[in-house]
Design a protein that fits this description.
Layout lengths: L1 E3 L2 E3 L11 H5 L2 E9 L2 E2 L2 H14 L10 H14 L6 E10 L12 E9 L13 E10 L13 H12 L4 E6 L4 E4 L3 E6 L2 E4 L10 H11 L5 E4 L4 H4 L4 E6 L3 E5 L1 E2 L2 E2 L3 H15 L3
Parallel strand pairs: 7-8, 7-15, 11-12
Antiparallel strand pairs: 1-2, 1-6, 3-4, 3-5, 5-6, 8-9, 10-11, 10-13, 13-14, 15-16
Amino acid sequence: MININGNIVASDKAVLAIDNRGYAYGDALFETIRINSGVLLFWEDHYFRLMASMRLLRMQIPMKFTPEFLEKEIIDIITANGNMNSSVRVKLMIHRVSGGLYTPISNEVEYSITVANLQSNFYTIEDQEYEVTLYKDHYVSTDLLSTLKSNNKLVNILGGIFAKDNNFDNCLLVNSNKMIVEALNGNLFIVKGNTIKTPPLADGCLKGVLRTQLLRILEKFPDYQIEEASISPFELQKADELFITNVIIGILPITKFRKKNYDSKVSRRLLGVLNTRIRLGN
């Protein structure tokens, strides 16, 4: 079942117009949200990021788009799919209404909500090898638009194909200044001693919801020094740990980059803190 503009329809009956602007021009935004037994994790951060993104793209925000309205729309589709007692991944898509070429004829929006099952109610770290490489065929722009979860993800798509063709688990993306920005599917953190570093939004990285959560958590850990600063490829091989974050997987340790192998002690500690916050109601 899928929610399209408030109408819950069977997946095989769901229809979008061929001139849908999200399809035709990538004129769309999305939020990927983790829900555990009907509880939307980090919902406030998701909601305010979505509203800020819609304003930046000059989309007209409907008066009914309150946090309560969108939460109910999400819960309704989860209920319709029989997933209220399990963990799911929800994708909330907002696109501008059809019409126009590059220039839209209206800034009004429509939306759709889809649901997919997840394995566990809490974040876990598997004991597995996870090797990454740099993707340098195309660069991420150091621009505010790069920080949005928009439908314009060609660099990520091509990076994913590159990783698959070359037997890597993931790629790290580089911006036009040759600085590391993020992984294909999440933000990047590096650990060196007691310093934990992540690229700043000014470098073009996604304004990730879990990135925001970890920065808040780390502020309360006096034994760690947190930095939002540019990361050069050279720094990766000097780091003790590398890990990727997003709201679906939580924290994913990188075990190998080129000839360097990494630990996961800090990753596992932070994951424990994150799961505790979820149990207490984030």
